[in-house]
Recover the amino acids of this structure.
């Protein structure tokens, strides 16, 4: 019998949160052919580690080049890697303290190459840092749970969010989707994303907490579902928002997802906006996710 060699199956790469249940193969998590995207998509600790690793690698390579030719660095101990390494750091940074200096033609050629490398490395890192930290980011606060409660005599799905900045946003647009596992008439399993129609999906001014309401009627993809069936179908809600932040003079986007266990039936949001005797409204954002049983008041539309 001939043994067949099985091709190595690549490890699936998760998509989104760990409990999302979706993954991809045939794609690289970090594609070295696209270093710009890789550098921007790395988390901050990973980005810092890569930059530090590249900096150390450059200095080690040039230090070895200096060590290969003893006497090419004035006032350095012959064959001393530490002297060559610290001279490389000074040269890469174009500091030049004057204690050690190139003493031969070989030393001048290597140090000149290192200076050019250091200038390019500094420019690249500066550009990446600027892009990473200059991208406009939204500061949106979300309730930890979505709720299904009674609204105007009908069941409705509600989600609450708020602008977490002191400045006001405008032209805010929100969309809510639900991912459901389904079977076709032929018995084929599939996961489909359905758009949930909202009573108000646009706010001209986004200043106070925003309550998104989807009425669960016969046309709703959530019609006939309860907590148990949503959990069995692996349901997950997605909330996307886009708004204009005038302090940043740019549009900002954000997204929040809710797994089935964070869709609470029979609960509603408690009031998060208080009014004083003069009628002035004050939003308490620490209550953004506060819940109470349905039928005991709470926030309406």
């Amino acid at each position: 019998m001939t043994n067949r060699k099985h091709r190595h199956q690549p490890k699936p790469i998760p998509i989104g949160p760990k409990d999302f249940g979706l993954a991809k193969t045939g794609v690289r998590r970090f594609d070295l052919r696209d270093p710009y995207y890789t550098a921007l998509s790395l988390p901050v600790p990973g980005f810092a580690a890569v930059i530090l690793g590249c900096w150390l690698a450059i200095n080690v390579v040039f230090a070895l080049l200096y060590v290969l030719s003893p006497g090419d660095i004035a006032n350095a101990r012959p064959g001393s890697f530490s002297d060559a390494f610290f001279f490389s750091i000074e040269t890469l940074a174009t500091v030049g303290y004057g204690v050690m200096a190139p003493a031969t033609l070989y030393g001048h050629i290597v140090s000149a190459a290192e200076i050019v490398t250091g200038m390019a490395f500094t420019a690249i890192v500066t550009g990446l840092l600027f892009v990473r930290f200059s991208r406009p980011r939204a500061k949106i606060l979300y309730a930890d749970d979505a709720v299904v409660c009674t609204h105007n005599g009908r069941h409705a799905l509600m989600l609450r969010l708020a602008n977490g900045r002191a400045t006001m946003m405008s032209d805010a647009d929100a969309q809510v989707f639900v991912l459901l596992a389904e079977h076709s008439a032929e018995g084929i399993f599939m996961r489909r994303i359905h758009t949930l129609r909202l009573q108000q999906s646009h706010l001209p001014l986004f200043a106070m907490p925003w309550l998104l309401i989807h009425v669960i009627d016969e046309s709703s993809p959530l019609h006939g579902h309860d907590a148990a069936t949503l959990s069995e179908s692996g349901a997950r809600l997605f909330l996307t928002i886009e708004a204009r932040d005038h302090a940043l003079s740019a549009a900002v986007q954000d997204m929040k997802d809710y797994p089935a266990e964070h869709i609470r039936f029979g609960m509603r949001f408690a009031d998060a906006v208080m009014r004083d005797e003069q009628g002035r409204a004050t939003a308490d954002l620490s209550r953004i996710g506060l819940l109470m049983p349905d039928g005991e008041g709470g926030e309406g539309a």
